[in-house]
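The data are quoted verbatim for reference:
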Amino acid sequence: MVVMILEKVPRSLRGELTRWLVEVDTGVFVGRVSATVRELLWEKVVEKAGGGRCALAWRTNNEQGFALRLHGYQDRVLRNFDGIVLVAVRNAEAMRKADKLAMQSKGGRSTPEDGLRTAQLAQGDLDNQFLE
């Protein structure tokens, strides 16, 4: 079983996913596909998502019974605690502090990406990879 949630992605991508999965609500896809098809669909979604957000959950043989992947989420990070995957949510205040730190370190010149990078470094999360 695969569940994929897409937000702010092109309609063409959503239409393309309906070839393999059922769209039960806007941007929410459910289906049963092989691991190979799941991986290929995820690659396509990440490639075509643009500035949108994507989440993928699928059944697997671990303690939780499922695994997760996230793409494009600036405020959420997957954390592995002894084999249990949790979603850590960064609050708005932490994001503002990270932006402020980035501005101070660059001498007043900052971009939103700098703040995100500082927040990721502060939390020790350099890559938003999936955890199984």
Observations:
- The beta strands are 2-7, 22-25, 28-31, 53-59, 66-71, 76-81, 84-89.
